[in-house]
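On clarity, I found the account of how folds are encoded harder to follow than it need be. What matters is that the chain and its backbone geometry are given together, residue for residue. For the editor and my fellow referees, an illustration may be useful. For illustration, here is how one protein appears when written out as sequence plus structure tokens:

___
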Amino acid sequence: MGQFKPHLKYLLIDENAYSDAELASLTNLVAAVFRFEQAQSPATMEGLISLLIDWLADRPDLRRMFSLWIRATLMRKPNYGIFTPSRRFTGDKSHVGR
């Protein structure tokens, strides 16, 4: 059986090992994902969404993907089932002209 066992190297990243302050000092999407997963309030989430809006201004494809991920994440959190990303974040313009 040993011949069928994969021999891969990997890096385990424990997102809970980082404090919010440590993650906030980093300007990257992985840190934002970790912060979003650890967020304790809708206000914190709204702040993170504002950061993502700025960071992804020129990347509508990533904005859309993050919007879907955020929505799925919030649906798993019973306290935030109603909170969803704003249309400004998702780039949804279906409300224009109505």
Observations:
- The two ends are 64 Å apart (CA to CA).
- The CA atoms of residues 22 and 31 lie 9 Å apart.
